[in-house]
Amino acid sequence: MSTPREAVWNKLSLHQDPTLVQLFADDPQRVETFSARFEMEEGGVLFDWSKTHMTEQLLAEFEELAQVSQFDEMRRRLFAGEVVNPTEGRAAEHSALRGVGKETSVEEAEALLARMQTLVEAIHEGALGEVKHLIHVGIGGSALGPALAVDALSRDLSLVDVHVVSNIDGVALEAAFAACDPATTLLAVASKTFTTIETMTNAASALKWLADNGVADPAGRVIALTAAPEKAVEWGVDETRVLPFAESVGGRYSMWSSIGFPVAIAIGWQDFEAMLEGAADMDRHFRDAPMRENLPLRAAFGDLYYARVRGAETRAVFCYDERLGLLPDYLQQLEMESNGKSVTVDGAPVDGPTAPITWGGVGTDAQHAVFQLLHQGTHLVPINFIASIAPGDALDPAHHRILLMNCFAQGAALMAGKTTDDPARSYAGNRPSTTILCDDLDAATLGALIAFHEHRTFANAVMMDINPFDQFGVELGKEIANKIEKGGASFDPSTENLLKLAGLSAG
Ligand code: F6P
Question: Which of 62, 229, 392, 437 is the most buried (most CB within 10 A)?
């Protein structure tokens, strides 16, 4: 006897799909049926799934999968602030920071954000003297979101020059030092736990750099962004400059909290708030929209179809927008750290492949580097194109026109292919892509885009029956690094040899 989940997966695995070209030929309404617009207060975003193999029948079967996976109940628990991360006994309350969630959590988040707003505005008004630069040290979720949003939103006007430094490799921090004047630099130390070795080492070196370069009160230039405020105070940050956030906000979901401090410093509070509001629009949509219209859920259907039914091992994201150059990095952590698991919520082996490998880049650059494989290689790679109708630049409109034309041309070419007498010059076609087309990439739209991906990741997890909110896979390497640091432990011959060559063991 198969379980209800197995029964749906079995049904899905029997699909023999027509080609994409055939799907369009069979249905003149395909673009309308398989695209949807997300309306925002100003502008909106078009999601076009028509160049994927999704059909009405597949949609219906995935809806059945969502039902047997208790999608409604899991989504209710997420927004109710109930435990959705059972291995750590935690809720996942990032949406509360956007005003959507359990009432008491929303109130708590509002109070913490109000505290952050006060400090951000005071800094802009000169309370800490002249501030031209901010060095933000943090890693993983404490760096990727802020780096993305600062890069995307502060190109036209940056109130403060922000440098996000994550790597323990001192080369990264030295590059920030070279670009900053210590007399007008603040240091933000971002770490949920306030124990991460890379961040704490970078923070100590940055503090020393301030002291060595004549800053009278270096500790007075530090702002801590953390869910462990007592540790920040212990480390030496004055309580008035510690901006806490709730334990129930996961690291890779934390850019909406005080971890977003550098974003607010760079773009101003009003735009930071607009980013939260855009994300809140997507939260309400994900929470309330029925399955057929639910954008993150529909995206997850496509993800699961390609990863589990068609065996795609990767998915690629190409942003035809220079400002979103860091989005693939951000999505890698969001999707791979969340859904790169091998066991179900109950600890049993999963019943199929989990997160595909997320990768990508910017267009048109990627066309001249990796698109050869996408057009003629042997891998199946479902692609997401992301672009904005409004340009991000003020140059000759030819730039943006050529950018968008190329984006759309790639999707068309991947689907249509081309047959010639010469196999080397032929393209098989039938390669799927989705296009996400924003009216304009403003702060609210970026917020909505990121929240869309958060919820898409959650929806994928629910239908794979896994917990997207823990990340024990990152611990073992840290443990071994600690053992090496302490000394006295022995390892495999290869590791021993490498340690010896680098002068890191007595051996
Ligand atoms: O190593 C993984 C991780 O725990 C991520 O999940 C997290 O975003 C990152 O490290 C940084 O952690 P913290 O914010 O506690 O310094």
Answer: 62
Q: How far is CA 252 from CA 94, 135, 228, 329, in A?
A: 10, 20, 16, 12
**Residues 131 and 212 both lie in one domain:** yes
Is there an atom of ligand 1 within 6 Å of 142 CB? Answer: yes
Whether ligand 1 lies within 6 angstroms of the CB of 199 is answered as yes
- Asked whether residue 174 falls in the same domain as residue 312, the answer is no
Contact between 190 and 226 under an 8 Å Cβ cutoff? The reply is yes
Domain with 240 in it: what CATH number? Answer: 3.40.50.10490
Which among 146, 185, 182 has a CA at the least distance from the CA of 164? 146
- What domain count does the chain have? 2
Confidence of residue 507 (pLDDT cuts 50, 70, 90): very low
* Pairing assessment for the beta strands 161-165 and 44-48 based on DSSP bridges: unpaired
**Does 55 reside within a domain?**
yes
Q: Quote the tokens at residue 208.
A: 């020393």
User: Looking at the annotation, which residues are catalytic?
Assistant: 337, 368, 478
Evaluate whether residue 279 is within a structural domain. Answer: no
**CA distances to 334, 352, 408, 471 from 254, in Å:** 11, 29, 33, 15
Please tell me the predicted confidence (pLDDT) of residue 506.
53
d(CA 37, ligand 1 centre) in Å? 34
Ligand 1 atom 3 nearest Cα: 140
Largest CA distance in the chain: 75
CA–CA separation, 443 vs 449, rounded Å?
A: 10
pLDDT at 55 over 60: yes
Note down the domain range covering 238. Answer: 95-268
Burial grade of 273 (CB within 10 A; 0-12, 13-18, 19 or more) = middle
